[in-house]
Amino acid sequence: MPDYTLRIRRYSPENGDAAHWEDFQVDLDGSRSVLDGVLQAKDREDGSIGIRCSCRAGICGSCGVRINGKPNLACRTHLDEAHARAADGVIVVEPMGNMPVLKDLIVDMDAVHWKKIQRVTPWLLPDGPPPEREYVVPPDNMIDVTQTMACIQCGACVSDCLSMEVDPLFIGPAALAKAYRFVGDPRDGHQEQRVRDLAEDPHGLYDCTHCFNCIEACPKGVAPMSQIMRLRRIAGDDHHVEDRNNGHRHEMAFVKNIEKNGLLHEADLLPDSYGGKLHPRAVPELVSSLPIILRALQRGKVTPAGALLHKHKAPKDVKRIFRDIEGREERYELNLYVAGEEEDAS
Amino acid sequence: MKVAYWPGCVSRGFAPELHGSMARVAPLLDIELVELDRAACCGAGVIAEHNQELADTLNARTFALAQQEIAGGAELMMNICSTCQGAQSECQERLDGNTPYRDHVNATLAAEGLTYEKGITNKHFLWLLVEEIGLDEVRRRVKRPLTDLRVGPFYGCYIVRPSNRLGIDESHPRDTYLHQLIDALGGTVVDYAGQYKCCGFPIITMNKEASLKQAGRHVGDATDANADCLVTPCPLCHLNLDLQQPAAAAVVGRPLNMPVLHLPQLLGLALGLEPKELGMNKHVVKPSSVIDWTTSVVAAA
Q: Can you tell me the distance from the alpha carbon of A291 to that of B260, in angstroms, rounded to the nearest whole number?
């Protein structure tokens, strides 16, 4: 049996010791999981190692940890794969991020993850009296929400959310993906209220910074960030929510900017994101940005003429593309998770 | 080699030194840049969040224009902006992954006589350096090794995630290319906590404090790791890390004075170009104020 070294981050609030690393040798086949490794160390060397686990088959979502710095399920990561990615041959196992550590590899999911899930009203709110028999949902609508239903609440995406790292109040990827699960369900009667609530929250829909960490982290292909973008389309385009966070205004300012100029004219984008150069919302922003604008001018990064005028204009075919597509009755969205990748004919 | 070159918007807008330094560096590596001057913005993820088909169609048009250049002798499409690379890769994944969808998008392009054929090769300059030119060749052309220069790589998001979409695997460890390049140029790689994190720029108009806190933390982490400067393949990251650095310093409550170089600028220095030729005088944080040119970069010439 090959030997693997697991370097486990230990922390116990009871003994008063600072968090520290401990190495454990495990002799298991490389196709066994990191969880099996941790459990062998617990069994043979130190029974006090704390880790949550249940199904050991990637279904229950209990054993989320960081392995070599990246969040994953311990039961779903083979020892040989983890070893191959380990910096110096030592497999590093530590608790997930963005959540307080209770003991060793166990984090407080209640304090962060579950609280955020509750924040999005994660149950169906049908409108009006129930039908005489069961609710009937067209298969296409159900398939549409299957991607978000695949979530096993492991917390891997929450662990590495970079917006949450600087804004702990951010609702976060798991809860927003859960929100789409109900917003996308035709039985739910509160689509507009749901997306309005999320868009208006200063730590909500528009607090996501597009870092893709949640897509990379998710062991189930839920792609939370893609669901956040779908929620934004529904909030802005279907329900015209003009949120207080400038989220929708920024999006529209960007789209109009490109439709007009073809290439982005940044000097217009900033004020337009706040409602336009003379809008009361924009004025304090421009004033507070003044030192930066002046420094950019002083360094020759931008010229006054370049800031005021944009010499590039969108070609007529670009304008036509905007007209054609924005004029469609329905948005055409392709979701490869649902459609599947084509097999290569070649 | 001839490439169909997409500079993007910001490199010709608020970060003109990026486009300028690329133009200076290209001939030193025998790269002929054929600029795609009729193409439009990639959407930076924002157009896609508004309307996916719109973003996919605009990028399919860019790809189709690049394919005309490729038919005329260019080897591939190249860009110099991570955000363009990431946004375009996302659109390409959908366009290449579904023939009826690609046909639908091409029907919109048909009025202009353009068609996107599945499978364009679109590489960021960083990938092209490692995979097409080769770091041994780059090493041979170094005139002024970056000896004693401690460089922190700042990858940002769009060029490293999601790894499967961006073609990162064992034979293409693209998430290590900045490290490899710094090393090839004779510099010292400085690892620090923020190298693969988000600069915060996409939410600067929505949550300025959270946005600048991200930039400030990463610059602070690099400072604590004793980096002389950062290098980034993304001009949008540059906006938050350099242009906004004084504001970010105020948000994180510590003084910051970290020069941030665009990828072609770092390369250009090692290839013998002068800081001013590379537009380094246009930065908000003056590189000369921190890097001692006389002892670190220039001395080994």
A: 19
Q: Do A258 and B41 touch (CB under 8 A)?
A: yes
Cα angle, residue B110 at apex, residues B106 and B114 outer, rounded to 5°: 80
Query: Chain A to chain B, count of Cβ pairs less than 8 Å apart?
Result: 198
Nearest to A61 by CA among A286, A219, A247, A289: A219
The model's pLDDT over B127-156, given as tens digits with 9 standing for 90+, comes to 999 999 999 999 999 999 998 899 999 999
What is the C-alpha separation between B90 and B59, in angstroms, rounded?
A: 10
CB atoms closer than 10 angstroms to residue A163: 29
φ/ψ of A65, rounded to 5, equals -145, 175
Q: How far is B92 from chain A (nearest CA, A)?
A: 12
On whether the CB atoms of residues B233 and B129 are closer than 8 A, the answer is: no
Give residue-wise pLDDT tens across range A99-143: 999 999 999 999 999 999 999 999 999 998 989 999 988 988 888
CA distances from B232 to A225, B196, B220, B236, B278 (A): 24, 11, 16, 9, 15
ipTM > 0.90 (yes/no): yes
Nearest CA distance, B55 vs chain A (angstrom): 10
Residue among B163, B270, B186, B165 at smallest CA distance from B176: B163
In chain B, % of residues over pLDDT 90: 91
- pLDDT tens-digit series, residues B210-234: 999 999 999 999 999 999 999 999 9
Determine, for residues A167 and B207 on separate chains, whether the beta-carbon distance falls below 8 Å.
Answer: yes
